[in-house]
Amino acid sequence: MAFTLGIDIAVRAAHQATLARDGATVWRGRKFWTRPSDLERLWTDLDVADPGELTVVIEPTRNAWIVVAEWFRRRGARVVMVPTTQSADLRRYYSKHTKNDRIDSELLARLPLLHPDGLREYSGQGPADALRRLVKQRSTMVKRRVAVYARLDALVELLGPSWYAMLGSNYGLAALEFLARYADPNTVIRLGQARLSRLLIARSRGAWREDHAAGLVAAARETLALWGADGMDFAELAEDIAHEAEQALFLTRQIKQIDERVTNLYADADPDGIVASAPGVGPVTSAVIAGRIGDPHRFTSLAAVRASTGLVPKVSQSGVSKVESSITKAGDPLLREVLCHAADQARKVDPQIAAKYQRLMAGDRHHDSAICHLATLMVTRIVACMRNGQPYTLRDVDGTPITEAEGRAIVKERYAIDQKNRVAAAGRRMQQRHRQAAGRESQESQSAPTSQPANTKPTSRHVA
């Protein structure tokens, strides 16, 4: 006898549960909170003799589902998850005009019969895993810092090009600390070259010295000459720059601390460095891949691994017709991002990947499309290595093991992409898009707007 418990997870309200036995509803709409007393009461109401006969179906909702899933898993129940997109489609089929928590819980209880292939076994803590959570947090902070740098660039440009030339584009700690205190050109001139030199030497650990201080003083004088006496309120501008520089300094320190934690967590998650052994995978990328993939054995096949990344194309098939469009993007966006970056680097080292990239580009494929294909190949190989417990072995196209230096030499010699051919392929793709656009315009009505120039010549002669 099989029991199914469908739970509609709420974040700030009570959850609702429905119990089904062999597809038939036993009871529905039981409300409970994520509290030990409520969970114990629900477990008593289930009245299941063997916990192994119970399947708990949960739709992941933020992080509120993790605690409930772990509680039932510790009790011996089988916990499965359903993607939110699939449950939404089935919900529309099940009840067209009404949507509430009771219907959602009843739908989840019937899912093992309606769509068993859409269920995914819960095998770990997911977002509760420290490495998985931390690499996402690092990615978010890096993107925030990039946004701060962009705003900082826009403000520094008001001071003139000489400041940008002296401070550089990467905004190291010395540059940020200088901008946080001395973004006013009047303050720089009053400070003087000697004191500014001592400050820069201390903040940059000797990388910036007297010549750099002289360049910044000259840049400050140039700014005053550009704006004149009353052209700009430099004190207010310096305050705005200081706010952005202090944010960048804070984020830089936070990212450094996170990097140290990520290094330790990755060493525990992958002690043999199997993910890091893949070409094009650095310390940060390997931690992201290991953290976001999690347990490699939770996938039923390597095809399921590729599908989980969202890098596989959408397929529409009917009879003998089959159309593959853009990628599904149904998986983890951070994992897709690092896999594409790793694939772009791996094609410069791995001859097998470089050969596939050359074949794809020879078929007039766009670079980004080719990289998506390589990323699916990369994740398949990495997960296969994780499952087998063996590091990634770099090989030539004939299967001969090679070193990284030999791989780079082979790729450079055999699989270099001619820039002229790439430009020509881009031109052919552009012409094809223009032909398709022209075909769509020809099917429109004569009065529809068009991007083609209007015909100003008369269609017939006027006879007086």
UniProtKB/TrEMBL annotation:
<feature type="compositionally biased region" description="Polar residues">
    <location>
        <begin position="444"/>
        <end position="458"/>
    </location>
</feature>
<feature type="domain" description="Transposase IS110-like N-terminal">
    <location>
        <begin position="5"/>
        <end position="159"/>
    </location>
</feature>
<feature type="domain" description="Transposase IS116/IS110/IS902 C-terminal">
    <location>
        <begin position="274"/>
        <end position="358"/>
    </location>
</feature>
<dbReference type="GO" id="GO:0003677">
    <property type="term" value="F:DNA binding"/>
</dbReference>
<dbReference type="InterPro" id="IPR003346">
    <property type="entry name" value="Transposase_20"/>
</dbReference>
<dbReference type="GO" id="GO:0004803">
    <property type="term" value="F:transposase activity"/>
</dbReference>
<dbReference type="GO" id="GO:0006313">
    <property type="term" value="P:DNA transposition"/>
</dbReference>
<dbReference type="Pfam" id="PF02371">
    <property type="entry name" value="Transposase_20"/>
</dbReference>
<feature type="region of interest" description="Disordered">
    <location>
        <begin position="422"/>
        <end position="464"/>
    </location>
</feature>
<dbReference type="InterPro" id="IPR047650">
    <property type="entry name" value="Transpos_IS110"/>
</dbReference>
<dbReference type="InterPro" id="IPR002525">
    <property type="entry name" value="Transp_IS110-like_N"/>
</dbReference>
<dbReference type="Pfam" id="PF01548">
    <property type="entry name" value="DEDD_Tnp_IS110"/>
</dbReference>
<protein>
    <submittedName>
        <fullName>Transposase</fullName>
    </submittedName>
</protein>
